[in-house]
Amino acid sequence: MKISKPFSDLPIWEFYEVDIPDLDYEKFDFKTLRELNKENPCLQDEIYEKRRKSSPIGNSSYDKLIQNVHSIIHTISESEDNSNVIMVDNSLLFSMGPWYFEKNEAEIVIDNKGYNIGYHLDNRNIKANLFLNLEDNESSTDFFIIDPINTMNYDSYTPSKKEWSGPTKKGSGYFYFNNHTFWHKINVTEEERKILMMGIYIN
pLDDT tens digit string along 41-100? Predict the structure, then answer.
C-alpha cells in the first residue's frame, strides 16, 4: 500500500494498491438513498434512485475489506507527527480522539450515471470520510479548496485556491478530515461507479 499527501498543509491523503477481495454484488441487499430515507422529503428526488448502498456485515469478503480499510487509517495516523491533534489553516479541528473510527460502518456504494452533487461542505457531525475504488472508475470527488477569511488574515486576505480530484483506479482512494476549506462535488459519468464509503461521525 502506498500513501501520499497531495497538500502538505491539509488533512487529506490518497492511497494506492489496497487489496480488493472478490465481491459478489448479487448477494448484497442494496437499497437506494430514496428507500433508505423515506421520511426525509429532501431525499425523495429521482436522482436519489441513482445511488444504492449496502453494508453486508458477516460476508467474509466485506469483512476482509473492512480490515483493509482500518489498516489504511491506522497507517495514515501513524505517519503523522502528532496523531492527537489535527490542524488546518491554523484552526484546531479535533484535539481528542481524532483517529477513533472503529465503530463506524462502511458501505458498499453503486452510483449510476447521472448521480451528482454540486459543490458543498459536509455537515459538521461528519469528522472524516474515506472512499475506496472497488473497480476502475471514471469519476471521483472533485475538490475546490479555498482558504477562508479569519481574524488572523482579514487585513490582507487574498483567497488561496487549490483544485484536486481523488484517484479512480481499483484499490486506490482518499481519506480526509472534514473542514471548512474542502468544498467538493461529484458527477458520475460512467454507467456504474463501485466504491466503498466510510463516514466517520462525531459521537
Answer: 988 999 999 999 999 999 999 999 999 999 999 999 988 766 678 888 777 888 878 888
Distance CA 73, CA 168 (A): 19
Q: How far is CA 17 from the centre of its chain?
A: 17
Residues spanned by the domain of 116 = 2-21+29-201
Per the CB < 8 A criterion, the answer to whether 180 and 84 are in contact is no
* CATH number of 169's domain: 2.60.120.620
Here the cell at position 183 is 468544498
Query: For 171, which DSSP code?
Result: T
How many domains, in total, are found in the chain? 1
How far apart (Å, rounded) are the C-alpha atoms in residues 77 and 82?
Answer: 9
From CA 75, how far away is CA 69, in angstroms rounded? 10
pLDDT, tens digit (0-9, with 9 covering 90-100), for 110-124: 999 999 999 999 998
Residue with cell 452510483: 111
